[in-house]
Amino acid sequence: MIVWTYAAYLVASLLVTVLLGRTLHRHGRCFVIRCLNGDVQSADAVNNLLLAGFYLVNIAFVALVLKSDIGVETFRQSVDLLSTKLGLVLLTLGVMHFLNLIVLGFLKSRDF
């Protein structure tokens, strides 16, 4: 049972990370351009770097949270463990998103 729980956790976490990263990258481009005063070339470079950092931090977090000392013998225990781990990943993704917004707001206020 634990192998299936780990597999479901990895698939769900990586899928959410990649889909969210792509969505934020695509839809956040105009925000980054505006924060960098219309410099499209620099905005695209910053947007790509933000995406790479987003993936690195979140995939590393997914890997670190993978380990569990809790034994899983029943389906209910599997769902409990999976929901806790996925909840941590989703919380981390949200925090990363807001940290990126704070950094971009700081860059805009510095008037590059």
Walk me through this protein's architecture.
The chain has 112 residues and is an all-alpha fold. Helix content is 86%, strand content 0%. The protein has one domain (2-109). It has helices spanning 2-35, 40-66, 75-109.
Which descriptors apply to this entry?
elongated, 112 residues, 3 helices, 0% strand, mainly alpha
Main pleated sheet? none
Please report which band the strand proportion falls in: under 5%, 5-15%, 15-25%, 25-35%, 35-45% or over 45%: under 5%
- The total beta strand count reads 0
The overall average pLDDT, rounded, is 86
- How helical, in percent, are the residues? over 70%
Query: How does the helix and strand content classify structurally?
Result: mainly alpha
Radius of gyration, in Å, reads: 17 Å
Number of domains: 1
| Shape field | elongated
Put simply, the count of helices is 3
Order of helices and strands: HHH
Distance between the termini: 54 Å
Low-confidence stretches: none
